[in-house]
Amino acid sequence: MTPNSKLTTNPIDASELSFDDFKTIVINDYKIAYESRQASLLGRKEVLTGKAKFGIFGDGKEIPQIAMAKAFKNGDWRSGYYRDQTFAFATGICTLKEFFAQLYANPSVEADPASAGRQMNCHFATRSLNEDGSWKDLTEMKNSSSDIAPTGGQMARLVGLAYASKLYRQNPDLSYLKNFSVNGNEVAFGTIGNASTSEGVFFEAINAAGVLQIPMAMSIWDDAYGISVPAKYQTTKEDISEILKGFQRDEDAAGYEIFKVRGWDYPALCETYQRAIDVCRTEHVPVLIHVTEVTQPQGHSTSGSHERYKDKDRLEWEREYDCNLQMRKWMLESAIITEEEITELEATAKKLVRETQREAWNEFLATIKVEKEEVIDMINRIANGNPAISKIASLLASTPDALRKEVVSSARKTLRLSINNPSPERDKLINWYNSQASLNEDRYNSKLFTDGIESPLLVKQVAPEYTEESKMVDGRELLNACFDANFARDERLVAFGEDLGAIGDVNQGFAGLQAKYGDLRITDTGIREMTIIGQGIGLALRGLKPIAEIQYLDYLLYALNILSDDLASLSYRTKAGQKAPVIIRTRGHRLEGVWHSGSPMSMILGSLRGLHICVPRNMTQAAGIYNTLFRSDEPALVIECLNGYRLKEKLPENVGEYTVPLGEAEIVRTGTDVTIVSYGATLRVVEEAAEELAQLGISVEIIDPQTLLPFDTKRICAESLKKTNKLLVVDEDVPGGGAAFILQQVLEAQNGYYHLDGQPRTLTAKAHRPPYGSDGDYFSKPSVDDIIETVYQIMHDNNASKYPSIF
């Protein structure tokens, strides 16, 4: 067996096996478990000796994960957390060498397919995509959604992964999607530590899966602690399956099938997992497997020692009931293996792990060593007797396992010290540095978006078409027509959210569509923002095109952890190995009151890089953006204007076909005196103000960016400033919020600063949320009066004699 080969478990059906075959399977299982333990022990040493930055391992969970792996089939999905390394080894999701490559942060997709060195160790993922962003055949793979470190964050997407099987099973119109499902027979496996079951997202997901009745198999590794905090502070009754008994299904009501098994009992674990997953797969119901009496031999992570918080009795119990030792004891007592044979197996496994670790470390350093030698040679040539520069080369040469940052930093320091001594040698180092900058951009900074063949930036632009007969309709009707046309066109589209189904959403954008397309495709959900988003992520990972609705923008806050930690970072943390083209539909901006008038754009812009942030000013633009997103494969947030649903707009004849390109700003009104950049509902207020400003002799140019991420890729704003030389940003976010982002983009990224002849200004909402009522809106958010007076003041500052002070 080579160090990087994949050794996977086999399911046990004792009734069909000879004793020799049974022995072979059991011995192989123990071998995987033992190798995994050695990887944990050696991994910890590599961190403590400084080769790796941090380590968190799956020791103590080996045997239950072996049992779980036996029930895991091609097409199935995992959504787990960072203790699942044995499961990853047993299923072939990760090899030993890939495990160590990730520990060392090797930035190569080939070395670390899960994350290309971007994630801490034990954060697993399989690559669902080809290099061009197209899908692989996921039914021929054992699939793992990309792990995240927040310990309950995997629960939300797990709901969606399991829900996809229900849709594939019950909707025959999806049968053509052969690469994603085989009649919905896949199971979504979830894992979590017992302490993390205290998190709200766990309970939200457990409840959602019970309501939806989906094939979700939830495993809880219970080692009685959450880092240093014992179960008595974590869980009522110190027993999660005990308090979840109300979810147990019976003949009168649907629910879960709940199992409980000890984590060191290999035969019972194999039997329990076979029974549990059979129920889950065949009956399409959720199951929960509570694995108790689990140990954690090395403590939580390399950041600390569990001897600090576990008493002597607990530590002694953990040593005795270590699952690997208990399986070893059982194998000897059952005559499956002799002491001599198992000792030899362990010695061989230990040697294999050590050899694999060394190979992974040497491969990690190989490219860096070449770069290091090149740089040392170039620095010495530049030095030419300069002791300060020679010292840089000497320090780098004396660092045996230099990292890339030390090599590049040495080059940069040399270039700074030699700035006054140009030479061909220095030019050579500059050229090397510039070429490395491009390589390092790819290694460490690329693929925030998939950028594949279905990128929204590649969608063909189609203009809306109108005729003399085109009707004026409410904005909500225009949106409804857009959704109707697209649901008829693409069976992959599904939509769900609070009040979305039966009543067609609170503003009637989906009115009548559930009756037309069925409640599998247009669905009501409970009040559960985190798992609404997770439902979307899981469906999108499995090839569907979900629209996940958050009823109001203010309530996006309740799903921000899932959006930010999981969805926004997915493409980046897998280096485009996975994609989840979820469209989050919501509504916000101006209305009434503290909880229904939100415009927290700075929160969104700061936490959701990796999503396209779309802010259409009306429903015509919103529909065009949706048409673009429905034809592409990257996630987006679309914020509709809450007070625009009953405003009249002309209905395009091609309402389901025309597209609005992402990142292309639009000049809504041309002018010569001041450039105003605004978006969403506030843009209409700016347009109204422009009329009175024209009467005052002030010509304003109004620019609608339409999307904030990406922002004005054709630099329309900077071009406008060349003409007007004055800038005002009008925004409903708090002072210094979204407006600050727009200023940074226009003044810095587009070099608009050089075209100004006066101070750029922002006009924003107040620092507080708006109070209820029309007066509350007027005195809290930018009004027509505010805009007129701010623009007038800009003109007064520029020419006081022509524009005397108003006040």
UniProtKB/TrEMBL annotation:
EC number(s) of the enzyme? Answer: 1.2.4.4
The record places domain Transketolase-like pyrimidine-binding at 473-647
Q: Which domain of life is it from?
A: Bacteria
**Cross-referenced Pfam families, in alphabetical order?**
E1_dh, Transket_pyr, Transketolase_C
Record carries keyword RNA-binding: no
Which top-level enzyme class is recorded in the Swiss-Prot or TrEMBL entry? oxidoreductase
Its cofactor is: thiamine diphosphate
Print the keywords alphabetically.
Oxidoreductase, Thiamine pyrophosphate
Q: Fetch the InterPro entries from UniProt.
A: DH_E1 (IPR001017), THDP-binding (IPR029061), Transketo_C/PFOR_II (IPR009014), Transketolase-like_Pyr-bd (IPR005475), Transketolase_C (IPR033248)
Report the function annotation for this chain.
E1 component of the 2-oxoglutarate dehydrogenase (OGDH) complex which catalyzes the decarboxylation of 2-oxoglutarate, the first step in the conversion of 2-oxoglutarate to succinyl-CoA and CO(2).
**PANTHER family in alphabetical order:** 2-OXOISOVALERATE DEHYDROGENASE SUBUNIT BETA, MITOCHONDRIAL, 2-OXOISOVALERATE DEHYDROGENASE SUBUNIT BETA-RELATED
Its protein name is 3-methyl-2-oxobutanoate dehydrogenase (2-methylpropanoyl-transferring)
